[in-house]
């Protein structure tokens, strides 16, 4: 009798989980719902798939025939596994193009005394790393301080550059540095913060031109570690308050991203050149921003990454919010996340390409 009741309860649990997983697929594949609630549902996709996996595994030992449904649903979600984990070997090509991207957290310019060691090492790393094109988010420059004359340091190896802020003192926001001439550029700031927006550079190479777009979407400012600390300190009221703040930040972020991505889509669709897009999405690979860009460009991690490629150096650490995308005509040779470079709250990423 008990076994029959347990089996019935398991089946009643299985159906809602399977249906919810199908809904996350529908939203992620079609992006039919233009609402902040879709962002929450899509963000839960890996958890929904994991729930299906547990259910399928359980039914295999109880009643194998009932495992068919969750297994089929997992099979339908196979393309999303590529967004989570891949294992690809790097390829070689003559005249490859390397694009380096790094959210440098302002080089701790506004809090230098507490982070002197990290700031100095990050500065040295960002300057010395060799790449054809370097893209930065939350860039910082201060000409009257020898430690933060970052523009002067960067242009030694990459002499052509643009920034998203004409006033190149303090937190500039976005910056692109190139070994080759920039023949056209434009940019836009999203909202009041000069750190969020896009920066576009058409870069002339020996035999071709490529459009590089550096972006930073609206920052949701999620600090999970604060909630954890409050729970550990048994201050549950404060933990609830922080949790409500996170939910409000997510809702606000999803609404902003929907508008911001429309500007990015237009740049891609109207580009006369192959496109490489890089930057800080402030969103997981299951969100609407990622999905909309992926409809137009292919993701470098999915094409040539290795492992999970997590890019956030703070809680929650198991997410990839920094990305690179490129046009179909560009071949992705390699993609790396440098998880050992822990100077900023983001890890730097690098894509190597063959522009045909």
Main attributes of the structure:
alpha+beta; Deoxyribonuclease I, Chain A; six-stranded mixed β-sheet; 11 helices; 14 strands; 40% helix
Outline the biggest β-sheet.
6 strands, mixed
Arithmetic mean of pLDDT: 85
Task: Give the % helix.
Answer: 40-55%
Low-confidence stretches: 226-232
Tell me the number of helical segments per DSSP (H or I, 4 or more residues long). 11
String of helices and strands: HHHHHEEHEHEEEEEHHEHEHEEEE
Q: Strand tally, please?
A: 14
Under CATH at level 1, the class of the largest domain stands as Alpha Beta
Using the alpha-carbon principal axes, give the shape: elongated
Number of domains: 2
CATH superfamily annotation of the largest domain:
Endonuclease/exonuclease/phosphatase
CATH architecture of the largest domain: 4-Layer Sandwich
Q: What is the SS-derived class?
A: alpha+beta
Strand order of the largest sheet: 4-5-3-2-14-13
Strand content: 15-25%
- Rg, nearest Å: 22 Å
CATH-defined fold name of the largest domain: Deoxyribonuclease I, Chain A
Distance between the termini: 67 Å
Report on the structure:
This protein has 356 residues and is of the alpha+beta class. It folds into two domains: 83 residues, no CATH class; 259 residues, Deoxyribonuclease I, Chain A, CATH 3.60.10. Helix content is 40%, strand content 24%. The chain is built from eleven helices and 14 strands. Helix 1 runs antiparallel to helix 3, helix 2 crosses helix 9 and helix 9 packs parallel to helix 10. About 2% of the residues have low confidence.
């Amino acid at each position: 009798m008990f076994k029959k009741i347990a089996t019935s309860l398991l089946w009643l649990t299985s159906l809602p989980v399977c249906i919810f997983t199908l809904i996350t697929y529908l939203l992620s594949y079609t992006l039919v719902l233009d609402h902040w609630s879709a962002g929450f549902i899509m963000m839960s996709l890996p958890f929904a798939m994991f729930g299906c996996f547990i259910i399928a595994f359980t039914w295999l030992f109880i009643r194998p025939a009932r495992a068919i449904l969750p297994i089929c649903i997992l099979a339908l979600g196979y393309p999303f596994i590529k967004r989570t984990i891949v294992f690809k070997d790097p390829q070689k090509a003559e005249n490859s193009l390397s694009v380096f991207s790094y959210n440098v957290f302002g080089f701790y310019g506004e809090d230098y005394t507490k982070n002197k060691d990290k700031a100095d090492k990050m500065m040295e790393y960002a300057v010395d790393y060799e790449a054809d094109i370097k893209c930065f988010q939350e860039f910082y420059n201060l000409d009257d301080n020898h430690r933060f004359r970052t523009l002067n340091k960067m242009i030694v190896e990459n002499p052509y550059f643009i920034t998203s802020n004409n006033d190149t003192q303090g937190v500039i926001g976005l910056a692109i540095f190139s070994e080759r001439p920039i023949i056209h550029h434009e940019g836009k700031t999203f909202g009041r913060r000069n750190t969020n927006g896009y920066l576009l550079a058409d870069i002339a190479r020996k035999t071709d031109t490529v459009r590089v777009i550096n972006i930073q979407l609206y920052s949701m400012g999620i600090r999970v570690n604060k909630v954890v600390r409050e729970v550990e300190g048994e201050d549950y009221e404060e933990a609830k308050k922080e949790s409500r703040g996170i939910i409000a930040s997510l809702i606000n972020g999803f609404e902003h991203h929907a508008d911001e991505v429309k500007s990015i889509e237009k740049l891609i669709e109207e580009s006369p050149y192959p496109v490489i897009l890089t930057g800080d999405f402030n969103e997981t690979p299951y969100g609407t921003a990622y999905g909309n860009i992926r409809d137009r460009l292919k993701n470098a991690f999915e094409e040539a990454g290795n492992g999970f490629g997590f890019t956030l150096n703070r809680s929650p650490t198991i997410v990839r919010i920094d990305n690179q995308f490129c046009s179909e005509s560009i071949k992705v040779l390699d993609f790396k996340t440098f998880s050992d470079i822990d100077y900023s709250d983001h890890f730097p990423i690098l894509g190597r390409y063959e522009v045909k």
